[in-house]
Amino acid sequence: MTVPFRFTRRAAAALVGAALIAPGAQAAELGATEDPIRLALVEWTGQHLTTRIIGSTLEEMGYDVEYVSVGYLVSGAAAADGDVHATLEVWDNNLGDLFPQLLEEGRLENLGDVGLDAGEGWMYPSHVAEMCPGLPSWEAVQDCAQEFATAETFPQGRFLSYPADWSNRSEVLIEGEDLNYKAVPSGSEGALVAELKAAAETDSPLLMMFWAPHWVLSEVDVEWVDMPQEIREEYSITKPGVFKAVWPGLKDKWPAAYEVIAAAKITNEIQEPLMARIDRDGEDTEAVVAEWMAANEDVWRPWIETATN
Amino acid sequence: MRAALASRDGRLWLGVGAFCLLCFLLAPRVVWIGEYPDALVIPFASWITTGMSAFVDSFRWLFRALAALVDVPLVGVRTALQATPWLVVMVLACALAWRARGPGLALLTACALGYMVVTGYWVQSMNTLALVVVSVPLSVAVGFGMGVAAAYSERVNRIVQPTLDFMQTIPAFAYLIPILFLFGFGPAVGLIASAIYAAPPMVRNTILGLRSVPAGVRESGVMSGCTPRQGFWQVEVPTALPQIMVGVNQTTMAALSMVIIAAIIGGFDDIGWEVLSTMRKAQFGQSLLAGLVIALLAIVLDRISFGLARNRFAGETPDERAARRQRTWATAVALALGALLLAMLFPVFDDYPRDLRVYPAGQLNEAVNWFLRHYSGAMDALKNTVLFFGMLPFRIGLNQAVSPFTWGFALEPWMTAAYGVAAAALFLWLLWRGRAGGALAVALVAVLLWWGTTGLPWPVVIAAATALGFQTGGLRTAGFVAASLIFVLVNGLWEPLMLSVYLCGIAVAISFAIGGALGVWAAHNDGVSAFLRPINDTLQTMPQFVLLIPALMLFKVGEFTALLAIISYAIVPPVRYVEHALRNLPQGTVEAARQMGCTPWQILTQVKLPLALPGIMLGLNQTIMYALSMLVIAALVGTQGLGQQVYLALSQADMGMGVVTGLSMALLAMTADRILQAASRRHQEKLAVGTAAPA
Asked: Which residue segments constitute the domains of chain A, with CATH numbers given?
C-alpha cells in the first residue's frame, strides 16, 4: 500500500507537534487511555489476525488493549453491552439474527468494511475434476450428479451445504433450479472442513458450499464452480461483506481509537500468508503479528495518521 | 386368550388398535392426520420471548450483581493458580494426592499435570481448573441439600424429580441466550450453566443413598440414643456415603463436560475454548491433545475426592492423627518452598518455554489420514450396512426402506402380506399362550418397523404412548405422556421430535445392551472394572467434539456419525450403574442362593439382577438423559432433530424458541423415563408378591 508523501509528512509533523507542545490536547483526543480497550477474539484465525493487527496499532498509539476470547455470535451481544468494545470481523453471510437486530436498535455500530475481498460459492477439491471433466462449468455440475451420489442420497447427487442455522440458500437453489442433487446440511464449520480434508485425502467426490478467504484453502487445492451471474443473484450467493462492529460508546470514550478502527483495512494479501503460517505451520499468532507489525509500518502507520489528523 | 382380551388392559389396547387402524386408513385422505397443520401451531415461543424480555429488563440488575458475586472467587482462584509457578502447583497437588490415597495417585497426578505443562496447555488448564473448583462445590452443596430434603419428604420429592429432569435434559444451548442476557457476558455465565447441569446427579444419588439406608441401621442409631441430628450425620450419611460419593463423582464429571459448553460464550481462555477452536478447524490431533487435558483433570479430581472421602486414616487415634497432620503439613510446606526456590532459580519451572513443547498433533493427524487412505472403503461399507438394515427401517419404515438400491430387491405385495401374516401369527400365538405383554410388544414393534418413526401419523403415536403410560403407571402417567406429546405437537415441533426419537431410541437400545453387559462383566471381575474406569472417565469428560472429527472424516456428515457420537457418550452410565448396583447387593441373599446350589448364571439372572433393579433402572434413566443431551452435539454433524432446532434458536437469538425446544427435549426424556420407571415399579411389585407368597 502506498501513501502520498505529503500527507504522511504532514501527519507526522502534527503528531510530533502534538507530542511536544500539547500533551494534554493529544490525551483528550486519545480519550481514556487508562482504561483498557477490550477486543473480541472469536473462533477463527483470520479474525485473530485482523483483531491483533488493529489492536497492536492501538497499542502503538499508547492504548492499553485487552484481548477477550468470546464466541462469534455472542461477541455481538457482548459488544452491545460494552463487555467488549469491538468485534472486528463480522461476516454478513453468517450473522444470525442477533447482529442485525442489535445494529438496528443502535446498540452496535458498524464501522465499515474490514477490507477483505470475500467470496462465496460452490466448490470441489481439485481431484474431482478428473471424475467430471466438464467442471468447473455450471452445466457440468448438472450433468455429473451421478458422480456425487452416495448411499444416503441415491439416486441424486450429494451436495454438502452450510449448517441449517447459517443459511439454506443452496437448498433453495437446488430446488428452484430443479438440480438432481440432495443438499445435506453440514451442522458446523468443523464438519465442512473435516469432509473437505477427508475427500482430498481419499480422492473421493465432494461438492460443497464454501467461502474465501479461509485457511483450509492453503492446505487443500480446490476449484470454484462457474455459477452464472443471474443464478448467483437470484439465490443471493454473492460476495459476502465483512465489517467491523463496535460498542456505540467507543467514539466518545476513545475518539482516536474509533477513527483508527474505522480507517484500518485488512486485506486478503495481509491475512492469507499469515494464516497459512499459523494454521499450517503451527507458528504462534502473537509472534507472527509482532513480526508483521515491525515489517509493515507503512501499512498501519497511515491509519493512525488519518485518525489523528 | 379370551381372558387377556377381556381384561382392562385388553379392552384398552383393543380400543387403541381400532383407533390406529382408523388413522392409517384415513391418513392418505385426511391431510391433518398425517401432518399437523401449521395454522394450528400455538405461538408459545413468541409469548415466552416477550415475557422473558420483560423479565430480563426488570431483573437484570439483580442477576448482574449475582454474576459479580460469583466472579470474585473465580477470579481469585484463577489469579492464584496463574501466579503460582507450575512446579509449586504440581508439588502441592501431588502432596494432596498422596494424602488421599498414597504414592500411586501422587504419581498419576504428577504425570497428568506434567502432560499439561509439556503440551503447553498449562495456562488454559489452570483456568479450567479454577472454573471447576468453584462450580463443583456449589453443585455438590446445592445438590446435597436438595437431595436430603427430597429423601425425607415425599412432597418435596414430587417437585424435585421433574426439576432434575428439566435441569439435566434442557440442553444448555437452549438457556445460554437467556442467561447471557440476564448475567451479562463473562465466565460467570459458564459457571452458572455448569452448576445447573452438574447438580442433578448429586441430588439423585443423595436421595437413593439415604433411602436405601436399611431400617435396621437407622433403628440401631435411635436405640443407642442418637438425637435425630446425630443419627443423620453419624449413622445415615456414613451408611449412604458410597452412593453419595457416586454423586460427587458424577457431578465432577458433569461439570467438566460442561466446560466446553461454557467456552461457547468464552471470555476465559480456558481449555474448552482451545478444543472449540480446533474443532472448528477439524484439527483432530490438536483437539485430542487439548481434550485429554479435560479428561485428565477429571480423573485426577475424581480419584482425589474419592480418596479423601474414604479417609484411609479412619482407624487412628486422636494423638496419631495430630502427629500425622503435623507431618503432612510440614512436608507439604517444605516441598512447596523447595519448588518455589527452584522456580525462582530456573525459570523453566515457572514458565515452561514454548520451544520445549512436546506436541505430537501433526503425527496424530497423519495417523488419521493413513487410516482414512487405507480403510475408507471398508468403513463406507460398514456404514451403509448399518444404515440400510438397521437405521432406515426405524426412520422411514420397511415399506420405504426396502428398495433395490438398499436391500437388493423391491418390495413385492406378497412380501408385505407375508410380513403382516407373520406378525399377526406371532401376536396371536403369544396371546394364546397367555403372554399378553409379549404380544403387545410384537404388535407395537411390527407397526413401528413397518411405518418407521417418521411415517406414523401423530394421533397413532400419541394414542399408543398414552395407552402405554396408562397400562404401566395408571391415569397420572397417561395424563403426563399425553400432555407432553401434545405440547410438542402444538408447538409445531412434531417432525423434529420424531427424528430425535428415532436417533435416540436406537442409540439408547445399543448403549444399554452393550454398556449393561460390560457393567455385569465389570461387577464380577476387578481387572475389567479397573480397565473400564479410566475409559469411562475419558469418554464422559473428553469433549465429544473431539471424537466427532475422525468420525466425520470416516463416515461423513450424517446420521450414522451422529449415532456413533451419541453412543460413545450414552454407553457410560449403564456400565457404571449396573456395576455399582451389582456390587452393592446384600451379601446374605447372594450367599444363600449360592448355598442352595444355584449356578452362577442362575444367581445372576434370578437373584442379583432382580435385586439390583432399582440401581439398573437409574442407569437406564441416565442413559436416556445422556443420549438426549448429546442430540445437540449430534446436530453439529448435520442431524435434523430437536438438536438442530436449538441451534436455529441460538443463531436467531430467539429466547422463546430455545426454551420451547429445550422443554420439548426434556418432556421427551421424562415421558420415556416415566413409562420405564412405572414398568419397573410394577415389575418389582410383582416380585414382592412372588417372594411373599410362599412364606
From this structure: 5-117+241-308 (3.40.190.10), 127-234 (3.40.190.100)
Tell me if chain B has a CB within 8 Å of the CB of A91: no
Q: Average per-residue pLDDT in chain B?
A: 84
Three-state SS letters, B252-264: HHHHHHHHHHHHH
Considering only CB atoms, A81 lies closest to which of B185, B383, B545, namely B185
- Is a pLDDT exceeding 80 seen at residue A189? yes
When pLDDT is averaged across residues A131-142 and rounded to a whole number, the result is: 88
User: Beta strands of chain A (E only): which ranges?
Assistant: 37-41, 65-69, 86-91, 109-113, 119-125, 157-161, 181-185, 208-212, 222-224, 242-246
**The C-alpha cell that represents B248 in the structure block:** 460427587
Place of cell 440401631: B220
Specify the 3-state DSSP secondary structure of A183.
Answer: strand
Closest by Cα among B178, B139, B165 to B676: B165
pLDDT tens-place string over residues B445-496: 888 888 888 888 888 889 989 998 888 888 888 999 999 999 999 888 888 8
User: At CA B255, angle to CA B249 and CA B259, rounded to 5?
Assistant: 145
Chain B nearest CA to A40, separation (Å)? 9
What does the alpha-carbon distance between residue A288 and residue B300 come to, in Å, rounded to a whole number? Answer: 36
> Does the CB of A66 have a partner CB in chain B at under 8 Å?
no
Quote the cell numbers at residue B112.
497428568
Distance from the Cα of A4 to chain B's closest Cα (Å) equals 40
Q: Which residues of A touch B545 (CB under 8 A)?
A: 190
pLDDT band at A16 (very low <50, low <70, confident <90, very high): very low
Position with higher pLDDT, B313 vs B567: B567
CA–CA distance, B278 with B272 (Å, rounded to integer): 10
In angstroms, the CA A13 to CA A6 distance is 11
| Local confidence band at B147 (pLDDT 50, 70, 90 cut-offs) | very high
Round the average pLDDT of chain A to a whole number and report it: 83
Nearest to A213 by CA among A180, A183, A242: A242
pLDDT one-digit tens code per residue, B392-426: 888 888 888 787 777 878 888 888 889 889 988 99
Which is more confident, B52 or B516? B516
Higher pLDDT, A291 or B59: A291
pLDDT computed for residue A186 by the predictor: 87
Which among A43, A195, A282 is the nearest to B556, CB-wise?
A195
Chain A residues with beta carbon closer than 8 angstroms to that of B640: 164, 185
**What torsion, rounded to 10 degrees, do the Cα atoms B562, B567, B573, B577 define?**
160
Q: Model confidence at A165, in pLDDT bands (50, 70, 90)?
A: confident
Q: What are phi and psi of A92, to 5 degrees?
A: -80, 0
B643: closest chain A residue by CA: A187
pLDDT class of A21 with cuts at 50, 70, 90: very low
pLDDT score of A11 = 44
Is the pLDDT assigned to residue B272 strictly greater than 60? Answer: yes
Q: Domain locations in chain B?
A: 1-34+396-490, 493-695
Grid cell, residue B445, equals 414393534
CB contacts, 8 Å: A160 with chain B: 557
**Per the structure block, which three cell numbers stand in for A283?**
507458528
Q: Cβ contacts of residue A15 below 8 Å, gap of 6+?
A: A304, A305, A308
Contact call for residues B357 and B120 (beta carbons, < 8 A): yes
Out of B549, B635, B651, the one facing A73 most closely (by C-beta) is: B651
Q: Do B405 and A154 touch (CB under 8 A)?
A: yes
User: Does A193 contact B268 at a Cβ distance shorter than 8 Å?
Assistant: no
Q: Does domain B493-695 have CATH number 2.60.120.260?
A: no
Residues of B in contact with A189 (CB under 8 A): 280
